[in-house]
Amino acid sequence: MKKQYAFHVDTERCIGCFTCAMACRNYYHQVEGVVWRQVHPLSEEIYPHRERAFLSLSCNHCEHPACLNVCPVEAYTKREDGVVVHHQEKCIGCGNCIRSCPYGAPKYNPVEKRAEKCSLCHERLDAGLKPACVQACPTDALQLIDLAEFTETNEVQYPAGYPRMEELNPSTRFVLPQTPKMVRR
Ligand code: SF4
Ligand code: SF4
What we know:
Layout: E1 5-10, H1 19-27, E2 38-41, E3 54-57, H2 66-70, E4 76-78, E5 84-86, H3 96-100, E6 107-109, E7 114-116, H4 122-126, H5 132-136, E8 142-146, E9 155-156, E10 173-175
Parallel strand pairs: 1-10
Antiparallel strand pairs: 1-8, 2-3, 4-5, 6-7, 9-10
The chain binds iron/sulfur cluster (2 copies).
The site of one iron/sulfur cluster has 15 residues, from α2.
């Protein structure tokens, strides 16, 4: 398998503190209402223990990105390491990528009048640094992995409620929450 950087989301470790989302927002000076990473509480029907029920989500850096395929001005590229980069300087704000991504990753920036999304902090990767969200997570719930070298077996690609899009092959991997040994009521 070719190199493919990916986010590893461990819901057993996530405490829902939103530090990852805030780190992303601060690092890229995101405008009001635009967030590239969001922490989603899980529905109690999916997982009844609210203290451990969060998914931290952003772009999945898919193997076959829908965003890249529909962009009329080639504002998206996929790097050799699998990172799907959005080049904002090329974007004309047509919204095709926003409409085509089943994971809601590209957002419309009403100030710049163009799309934007997580590009996995590729400049930081090139400098040997972790992505800002991964760096900030206080519990190591969010990590960077290379799927080409990843051998763990208890991860899933499609947690409950997550769109199953095999033709895109999203790269993010999830550790699902287990039932806690002690439950406080
Ligand atoms: S999650 Fe959406 S924006 Fe990210 S690479 Fe896949 S199709 Fe593109
Ligand atoms: S920073 Fe880590 S623990 Fe906090 S919400 Fe994000 S993934 Fe969860």
